[in-house]
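Exercise: predict the fold of this chain.
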Amino acid sequence: MNALGRILGLAALAAAFAAHASEFRMLNPIAQPEVLPEGAIAVDRIRPVSPRVIEKAVDNLMAAWNTAQLGELISDRFYDKDRLLDNIAAFVPRDATVRVLGVQSSDTVSQYILPNQLDPNRAMRISKVVVNVRTQVEYTDANGQLQRLDGLNEYTFEVEQRLRKK
């Protein structure tokens, strides 16, 4: 009985350590190729999206921030889109604005061609671009003081570009 008690005690101790250690583990997804939409053609070589196109996309997003138009710019595939929009409406001061202090980097991470079945000369290049943007949110607090909050944010844009006929 004494040996059985020791074995059970060790088993309980091992289980406690395993349970405690599992709290510190991070779940990192295994990288895998992105699934392309039906009819899409993978590109051989990713072509970076022009910085001017990226800057325009960032400017459009920041101009729509804290307005009703923001929902139109966010994809329906964005996780918890409605929750994000509800939280902005509920917690961001009405007079808050965001300024772009600088686009620090952009990286075109995936790309494919989506042919137009009705007109082969109107194919689209779809690019997923990750952009790091330094921003500053400005608003007036409850005491009437102007507040400025700087931040570095990462945005993912899906850029659609019409391909020119060769």
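Check your answer against the key: Residues 66 and 88 are 7 Å apart (CA to CA).
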